[in-house]
Amino acid sequence: MTPLATLVLTPIDPMALVRAASGPGNGAVILFLGAVRQVNEGRDVTGIDYAAYEGMALRELQAIVDEGATRFGTADVVVEHRLGELQVEDISVGIAVGHAHRDAAYAVSRWVIEELKRRVPIWKREHYTDGTREWVDPTGHVSAGSPR
Amino acid sequence: MYDAIARMTVTVLLFASYAEALGASSLAVEVAGDATVADVLSNVRAQPGADRLPPMPLVAVNQQYADAHARVRDGDEVALIPPVAGG
């Protein structure tokens, strides 16, 4: 198959990603799932809203899987990112990679998630048990919270 | 014919914390015909709430990351990109 990136509003099906990345030449298939964590930086999280600049996010995601495929020598790279309101333990992102060999499969998987976190315009707003919500800034700056 | 003093309008898109800061998800911004990303940003800074934006936010023009010196054209989509947090 060709490298494929999608943004979805519905739950991610990990086995569908695995199937898409599998093939007769792939001796290794790696599945990475990102999930909503209950505690972030010491605060209890009840859920997360994911928002995106959708056109650009899709374009960047597709560029990442295309580039990853070229760099590491496999066409079997698929990524799916979920948007909207997620609960703790929901899967926010799934990446499946098939490759002839495991070393390269692990490397592509790691490279795709790091590039995604670096450049895809997606944002998350955490909901806390005290009723407040805040946009997460991974650069460490605190943005003003907005009470519900 | 090119007219350097002509005005043009670009659409500024705001997301996440930036949209909250300015109370809008998009703005129509009028700038000079030879404007750059930096000129668009100065215009945005005059808006109420813009004091909460960082000094040099990331910017994309027509869905591609662009630097402050990049020229903008009439009808361009200029997005201010808060620190990304996907995954």
Short description:
The complex is a heterodimer of chains A (148) and B (87). With 148 residues, chain A is an alpha+beta fold. Chain B is built from 2 helices and 5 strands; from the N terminus they run βαβαβββ.
Chain-wise SSE layout:
The complex is a heterodimer of chains A (148) and B (87).
Chain A: E1 4-8, H1 14-21, E2 28-35, E3 39-40, E4 43-52, H2 54-72, E5 77-82, E6 84-87, E7 91-99, H3 102-119, E8 122-128, E9 132-135, E10 146-147
Parallel strand pairs in A: 1-5
Antiparallel strand pairs in A: 2-7, 3-4, 4-6, 4-8, 5-7, 8-9, 9-10
Helix pairs in contact in A: 2-3
Chain B: E1 7-14, H1 16-22, E2 26-32, H2 37-45, E3 58-61, E4 64-66, E5 77-81
Parallel strand pairs in B: 1-5
Antiparallel strand pairs in B: 1-2, 3-4, 3-5
Question: How much beta of chain B, percentage-wise?
Answer: 25-35%
Low-confidence segments of chain A: 144-148
Q: Between the first and last Cα atoms of chain A, what is the distance in angstroms? A: 44 Å
Per DSSP E runs of 2 or more residues, the count of β-strands of chain B stands at 5
User: Helix and strand string of chain A, N-terminal first?
Assistant: EHEEEHEEEHEEE
Main beta sheet of chain A: 6 strands, antiparallel
Sheet with most strands: strand arrangement of chain B: 2-1-5-3-4
Largest sheet of chain B: 5 strands, mixed
- How helix-rich are the residues of chain B, as a percent range? 10-25%
Structural class call of chain A reads: alpha+beta
Anisotropy-based shape of chain B: globular
- Number of H/I helices of chain A: 3
For this structure, the quaternary state is heterodimer
> What is the helix fraction of residues of chain A, given as a range?
25-40%
Q: What's the overall geometry of chain A?
A: elongated
